[in-house]
C-alpha cells in the first residue's frame, strides 16, 4: 500500500493527469448514458427533468451527446499521453513515447545473436555500434589486466580486474546518462587516486555476491543491451610471454613494456575454465567477432581458456576477425594482416577465422608521421595473396573515425559493415533487415545534409 501511495506524492506530474483522465472517463460515461436516454426520450418526452431537458434540446440531443463523447475521448488520449511521458521520462531521462520504446526493443530483440571476444578500448568501441542493431549481444572480456586501478583492486581485494568489464557495461548501456558519467568517474584524492568508481562498485559487489552476479546487477542499473562475461573466473590468471630472443616475462603490463617480438603467449595457471554461458552463446551465435584490440593481450588470451578455440571452430556462425588499423608497439610491429592470422592460428586452431575485416582508407600523412615518430607504428599492410593462401576471405572498407587526434575504428561504420555482410551471407530475419536498412538510409540522409 505504501508503494502505491507514492504515485500521489507531489512533484511526479502524474496525479493531475490521473484526475483529468478520471474526469474524462466520467464525461464519456455521461455522454453514452445521454445517448441512451436520448434515444428513449425522443419517443416519449414526458419523463423526468432529464426528459424535459431533452425536450428543450429536441433533435440536437444526439448531436450534443456525440460532441461530449468526442471531447471526452480527446481529453482521455491527451491524459494518457501526458501520464506516459512523465513516467517514461523518469527512466529514459527524456520524454519518450512508450510505443517508441516498445518498437525499439521489439526490433532489437529480433537482432542476430552476436558473440564478441576482446578487451581494452577496442571491444567497448565495437559494442557501442552493435547495440544499435541488437540486444542479443554477448561480450566476453579478457581478465588478465594487472595495471592501473584494475590491477590494484585485483591485488588488494582478490577479485577479477573490473576495468574492461566496466567499460563494456557502459558501452552497452541503453542510453547515455549522468549515471554513466558517475560510473566512469576517476578519483583524484590520495586515498582513492586513479581508482574508478565503477571498478570499486563491481569489486565490492563481487565480494558479496560473486563476480558474474555483480556484473548482472550493475548491468540492470545501466539497462545494458546484452550480456557481459569474463573470459574465466580464475582470479589469479596472468599472461606469460616468450619472446623470439628466448627471454620470458609474466604480466600484461610488463609484456607491453618489453617491446620485443613475441613468439608465444601462455597463461598462468595453464588451466582455466570458461563460463558455461559463454560456450552456450557461441553455440547459438549468428556471428562471432574477434577484436578489435591488442592481438597478444586482448584477443589471443581467450583461446588459452579451455574449450574456447574448439567451440569457435565448431560453431555454425561465421567468424570475423577485425584487424587493427595500425601496428602496435610491443606486440605487432612490422606485422602484415596475414601475420595477425598466423598468430591467431598458432594459439588456437587452423582456420579459426572465416573473414578478416580491414580498413582500406589511406591514413593521412600527418597521422602516419606522428605514429611513426611516437611508436614506430605504421598501417597494417593488406597482403591479400597470403591471406587467400590461408583460406581467409578479405573484407575491406573505409572503417575510420573522423578524428584529428588519433587513428581508430569508427564504431558505427564497423558495426554497420559487419552486419551488412552478415545479412548478405547468412542472416535472414526480415524485421532486422528492415531495421538495418532504415538506419542506413537515415545515416545517408544525415551525411548528405
TrEMBL record:
It comes from the Bacteria. One of its GO terms (cellular component) is cytoplasm. Coiled coil: none annotated. GO terms for molecular function: LPPG:FO 2-phospho-L-lactate transferase activity. It is found in: Cytoplasm. Keywords: Cytoplasm, Membrane, Transmembrane, Transmembrane helix. It holds the Pfam family CofD. Required for morphogenesis under gluconeogenic growth conditions. Belongs to the gluconeogenesis factor family. This is Putative gluconeogenesis factor. It comes from Proteinivorax hydrogeniformans.
